[in-house]
Known about the structure:
354 residues; globular
Amino acid sequence: YTVVLRVIPRGKELVDQPQIDAWVEGYGQFLAAQSRGGEVVAVTAVLDNVVETRLKQGREVTRLVRPQAPEFARAVMAEAAADTGGVGVRIEARIALTYRAIGKGRVRRDEAEQAREIGQRLQGALSQLARAGLPATPLQAWEVLALVRTRYDLASQRDVEAAGAQLVETQSWDSVGPISHLDRWDHYVHDGARSVTWEMDAAPRGAVMETVLEELLRPRADVPRKRVAIVYRLHSAAEATNLVDSDFRDAVAAEQTERGIASASARIRVGNTQASREEQARGAGLTRFGVLVTVTDHLDGDLPGIEASVKAMSAASRLSVRRCYGFQASAFAASLGIGLVLPEHSSISKKVSG
């Protein structure tokens, strides 16, 4: 069961570094809190760059302007909502919380019971996100339908945004996917668009600051439809304790079995695993994470140019990525942030793949 939250990042302009550090710490506490009960399968954070239609601004201005307002004020608001021309790019951020079925027996199969159980836990997650500088609100059903429809069918974006909440009258979950699609070896063709997805091959090396992915996340006019999804797969508190203890024992055993003077790398490994044990004992969580980068363009788009841009942005973020060969369609769906967690659908046993 997945809840998709709309997030409005506050940005870092005119924000002091201590406040940014507090937000980063708050986000870490949010992830650690989700892992304690073992009920959250994954947390998927998505930053989506889409072409700006300016329809949302127009709707918001219409809602705000009162008929009795001064003419000059109404003229200024109308001009602010007017289409100024050119291709604009807007950023949409969301976080998807994917839960395992909660409870036992018939309760696990009762959708109403699951909604009630998740709803009780959701308020705590929203409060933790707010402390991390990420005020969030759950998406309504029609907004999730609109999200999926516009990502598969680029031509429908303006019509879907114009329809708004009335979308549920004409669309359902079965109809928002592509009319036709083709899963190629190195790209994915869906309706009138072509998408390419890359996955993280190696995490950034060295010290990781809060700005490490800035170049990859920044909107660019030459890549107007770009989506970066960070998938956190959380270990429960019990699993985390066993894992960090096991890693520490392995590191100590490896250091003691070396002949002569222990190598510097062995001593560093012991120190790192000991630090992990201490942090986990203080309440930190243990998380596996990965990154998916999806770029979508029209069928006649410049794919070689897009690939060069993605490689350059990833290198600037010190993130090693590789193309998702052979599973472009599933990687595209996983990067949407709607609850598809690829390792949970693997046909290989976890004992073998782990």
